[in-house]
Design a protein that fits this description.
- By secondary structure, this protein is of the alpha/beta class.
- A seven-stranded mixed beta sheet has the order 9-8-7-6-10-11-12, with helices on both faces. A five-stranded mixed beta sheet has the order 1-2-4-3-5.
- Bound molecules: nicotinamide-adenine-dinucleotide.
Amino acid sequence: MTVRSKPRIVQTDNPLVFAQQQIDMAAELLQLPKAAHKLLRDPLRELHFQIPVKMDNGTTEVFPAYRVQWNDARGPSKGGLRFHPKETLDTVRALAAWMTLKTAVMDLPLGGAKGGVICNPKELSQTELERLSRGYMRALAHHIGPEVDVPAPDVYTNPQVMAWMMDEYEVITGHRAPGIITGKPLDLGGSKGRSDATARGGIYTVREAAKVLNIDLKGKTAAIQGYGNAGSFAHKLAVELLGMKVVAVSDSKGGIYDPEGLNYEQVFDHKRRTGSVVGFPDTRPISNEELLELDVTVLFPAALENVITGENAHRIQAKIVAELANGPTTPEADEILFQKGVFVIPDILCNAGGVTVSYFEQVQDAYNFYWKEEEVHQRLDEKMVEAFYAVHNIATERQVHNRLAADILAVDRVYQAMKHRGWV
Ligand code: NAD
């Protein structure tokens, strides 16, 4: 079967519109009953609240916050929490929808959720950040739980924030509950292998993509947009595990290019000392826009939403686009890349290593028994390979692009769970 529905071209950069469009296309191809489609294209429930925080100078600030539980038919909802000044409710909703699809693509017994607090963590002291984190958990404690909804870190939240939140939850409920949150420090029930899991999972999918495309990645080039958790570990592991040459990397301040390949330890150290990759010696400065259009074998968008659009998709030269970021490619760009023969590894597959190891963390917390790092890597590898071929087989059979194939797989799995529960 070929694609009957093409994305409507809409002039928007609202990720929720894109997420709903992706669900619509999969639902149409699967001929989903109307009620199931309706349930899946909007969140099951949302919490909107305000968090008052006593600031160090004695004043009180009030921060708007959200938790969106998109769908929990397959299990407790799962998804990260962002602290960001530009966070919007619709972005949180879109990310919650993608989490629902992501856990289903990975065949994890989980649903999807996302949280956000509108704040600028760079302007908060550690004590203010702690009070904000505890305030978020106080507002949410009676609406989440290890068997209900489990948050995790995302942009500008980290293991320390998770530790404060876990402690607050345990104070409120009066019992130990490490499974309430993932991405915790190791001494509080975190999992080995969580820190590089997103990049590592993505690298495993690139390895498999190269096999089906018959490309030998050794010595081939890569470019990475974004140099945070996902992007910097992608640099390290593309070199270490695939033998690739990373020729360009960037962050919010700009990028650097060296056709001979960039040394991970040195670039990482430069960013740690100066706050940016920019200014790394003996490299040519490059803009974020130029980086995306470089003639490389693999392009890793690892920063933001909507960076590959109808405007620049024609100029993408990479053979493989490995989406470590959530939502970097618009539906219009998807069609263009598909026509050009670019192999896109969609976000809900490519960056699913993070939630997969978060799930492993929940399993270990429930066992109260912890695995060695090699065991985490091996189990992650198995899950990524299984999901990669489940998506690839649908793409090949139906002659659709990988994102639509992943959406078809995920939407069908969530639909089956809703049907078995008798919801639809
Ligand atoms: P992070 O906060 O650690 O890093 C973000 C990076 O993006 C920083 O280097 C920042 O400088 C850069 N950046 C910001 N604005 C930019 C711009 N305009 N141009 C270029 N670079 C810019 O965040 P992260 O955890 O690495 O997440 C990055 C992306 O990966 C996000 O879309 C996130 O949702 C997604 N993701 C992360 C994880 C995870 O486990 N960390 C899991 C799944 C998906």
